[in-house]
Specification:
This protein is an alpha+beta fold and about 220 residues long. About 15% of the residues lie in helices and about 30% in strands. The chain has helices at about 1-20, 185-190, 215-220; strands at about 30-35, 45-55, 60-65, 70-80, 90-100, 100-110, 120-130, 140-145, 155-160. The strands form two sheets. A five-stranded mixed sheet has the order 4-7-2-1-9, with no helix packed on it. The protein has a four-stranded antiparallel sheet with strand order 5-6-3-8, with no helix packed on it. β1 and β2 (about 45-55) form a beta hairpin. α2 (about 185-190) runs antiparallel to α3. It starts with a helix and ends with a helix. Bound molecules: calcium ion (2 copies).
Length: about 220
């Protein structure tokens, strides 16, 4: 009887451990691509943040980014706060750009330190070159994150593919979305003057301040073409 009770206690203890620590088996540091602004026009510069949520202490990272170079090009890559928040110096290589590939972006803390607070590792600015696209993927590849002792930590890449299908490829001044900014857009603003944006002309409020007025009209006039 005593042995049986001990066995039951052991089973309960195991269940308790699993309940208290449910994520142990699947834990990983996550890397997420986030994009801003969400509404984009051709020629816009878009910021893509490589955001890291460490699951354990980390000290170094590298990645590549694949993209369709007929749609976008990479303009710049800068270091985020991820490793500098350690208070120590960092080394950051902003990678090399070739058609369709940003490769070998890497960085490390210079010294025996580490971080575990979520932050952006890198910020990539890209430029939208063409409207002739339904969607576009930006794919993180070759993602390696190192712990302070040079061992790879488990990595989970989240939202690595960005759907561009919802992007507004028309200039905000092209109120009627016909590809040019001209008198037709001016007239559209005029017809909805002093209105709050309505389903009839949501885009007439060019500056998105909640009302269609002379400011929107001036913005259209200044951007004919
Ligand atoms: Ca137009
Ligand atoms: Ca307005």
């Amino acid at each position: 009887m005593l042995i049986k009770n001990r066995y039951i206690l052991l089973v309960f203890a195991l269940i308790l451990i699993l309940l208290v620590n449910p994520g142990t088996c699947t834990a990983a540091s996550s890397v997420t691509l986030s994009i801003s602004p969400e509404v984009i026009s051709v020629g816009d510069t878009v910021t893509v943040e490589v955001f890291v949520e460490p699951d354990v202490a980390i000290a170094g990272m590298q990645f590549d980014l694949e993209f369709d170079d007929t749609i976008v090009h990479v303009d710049d890559v800068t270091e985020g706060d991820l490793f500098s928040q350690s208070g120590m110096g960092t080394f950051f290589n902003n990678g090399s750009i070739e058609p369709g590939l940003l490769s070998n972006v890497y960085g490390t803390i210079l010294g025996a330190s580490n971080v575990s607070t979520p932050a952006a590792f890198a910020t990539i600015t890209i430029v939208i070159d063409t409207a002739d696209v339904g969607n576009l993927s930006l794919n993180l590849t070759n993602v390696i994150i190192s712990d302070p002792t040079g061992h790879a930590v488990e990595v989970e890449v989240i939202n690595a593919t960005i759907d561009f299908s919802t992007i507004d490829f028309y200039s905000i001044y092209d109120v009627n979305m016909d590809g040019t900014v001209n008198d037709d857009d001016f007239i559209a603003v005029m017809l909805h003057f002093i209105e709050t944006p309505s389903p009839a002309c949501q885009r007439c409020d060019v500056n998105s301040d909640g009302i269609v007025n002379i400011l929107d009209m001036r913005l259209v006039l200044l951007n004919y073409g």
